[in-house]
Amino acid sequence: MTIKDPTRDRIHPPAKAAHDGPPQQAGAADGHLRPQVTKRSVVIGGHKTSVSLEDAFWFELRSIAFGLGVHLSQLVASIDSERQHGNLSSAIRLFVFEYCRGTESVRRQNEQVQAVLAGAKRETAAH
Fold it and tell me: Does residue 89 contact residue 52 with C-beta atoms inside 8 Å?
């Protein structure tokens, strides 16, 4: 999925392509933003697993972990243990979305977010 950058044409006129191939970077000549997906290894339950997420989700996930005072791997392990279905990358995206869209009171009311946070904090206390 690409998202049209609404400011692209106003800030810079469309660039003329030097080649016929598709643009390779975000904010390319066609004015579409392309998500940068990064694959990282995370240790969950003593096993390494790779997770592919867009950079914005990695940034927010690290911010959430830092704010809670837990390690990223502890937060991811807790998300993994609480997920209902789907793959781990999707579960992380949904967790970040739910966490970021709500106020503190909404977060307290969301049972799944609370279960993940409690699991991450239990892991921290065990170390």
Answer: yes
Rounded to an integer, the average pLDDT of 3-23 is 42
Question: 3-state class of 70 per DSSP?
Answer: coil
**CA 67 – CA 100 distance, rounded (Å):** 12
**Structural domains of the chain, ranges and CATH numbers in brackets:** 1-34 (no CATH), 37-126 (1.10.3990)
CA–CA distance, 78 with 125 (Å, rounded to integer):
13
Q: How far apart are CA 64 and CA 44, in angstroms?
A: 18
Compute how many other C-beta atoms are within 10 angstroms of the C-beta atom of residue 82.
19
Instruction: Give the 3-state secondary structure of residue 119.
Output: helix
The whole model's pTM is what?
Answer: 0.61
